[in-house]
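I hope you will forgive my troubling you with a question about protein structure. The matter concerns a single protein, recorded as an amino acid sequence and a row of backbone structure tokens. Please examine both parts with care and let me know of anything in them that strikes you as inconsistent. Thank you for your consideration; the sequence and its tokens are set out here:
***
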Amino acid sequence: MDFALTEDQASLRDLAAQILSDNSNDDSLRAFAKDDRPYDAALWQTLAEAGLLGVAVPDAHGGLGQGMIELGLLLEEQGRTLAPLPLHATLVTGALPIAAFGSAAQQAILPRVAAGEAILTAALEEVGNHDPARPMLRATRSGNGWTLDGVKTAVPYGAQAERILVPATSEEGVIVFLIDPATPGIEIGAQRTTSSEPQAQITFRAAQADDVLGSAAQGADIARWIVDHARAGLAALQVGICAEALRRTAAYSSERIQFDRPLGGMQAVQHRVADGFIDVEAMRSTALRAAWLLDQGIVAPAEIETAKYWAAIGGHRVSHSAQHLHGGLGADMDYPIHRYFLAAKQVELALGGAQPMLAAIGRAIAAGDTQPLAGARA
């Protein structure tokens, strides 16, 4: 595949970079942290007016009809600026699956997403469950519908979303529901996160669930589809976070004088920054590869897990290097580099960290479910 961006993709990336850079910086983030707002609503509307919230919404619903690569470019710029926005939750885990599998009635929300009027999310994480595509939440037949029982945790913007995609396991297999959070039997409690992203724990107690995404027979494939896209989106977000953290670290070490010479002139520092650059580029190539495969409709879970593995292990190494090379400033929670450390850590662990991804990749290789490397001989 060719990793070179098309002219339209480059223009989209540049527009996102300009808007996010102009509206999300160290000063604005410092002020935002003192507010009680879950996200920057003004910036959200600015992105909507620029057409960026509709980047992957079908043109029939007021969007641009683009794919995961374009969404990844937008997420990378969000990671670079740490803009406090529900982009991943709404566009990747919400709008994308509704556009792909939803009924006409379900897709009626998509124009409002593109206009910045609706927030969506997906409840994927569960305590003690390493495979969000095989949920522990139970769905039980109740008349013509279903009831849900169980708990979902770390749901991004769970208290702000208008609709929540919820995978659950029934006797018939996995089913994905589109849930109104105001449904009786649903309790939403706020959860604090190190990165300050609003998340929620959602408890279902015999909650009625009648709105099924796709069909019950498609549920397992839809749940896997959502998780794959969510992981690819996180990988793209991590590229932006770590690339900017490394850029800031290189600039700081070039200016910081230690023992009468720039810190960046010391070989040990140079080696560590160079290793970080290699990690970022590995993260970038695997994230682009994952997005391209998804856009092509190629089912390759191990390659998606590879992108998430690099987002986890590379994100861990780069964020720690950035913090360490800033010395005492790196430990200062009010200093900007610490925001990147916290953001990278959250992305590292979301939907599976390095070890769960490595284990999944190993199982796929052992089962013969992966393609050989280019040029490999039997």
In short: The two ends are 22 Å apart (CA to CA). The chain has twelve helices and nine strands. Residues 374-378 have pLDDT under 50 and may be disordered. Strands lie at 120-122, 138-142, 145-156, 163-170, 173-179, 186-191, 199-209, 257-258, 261-262.
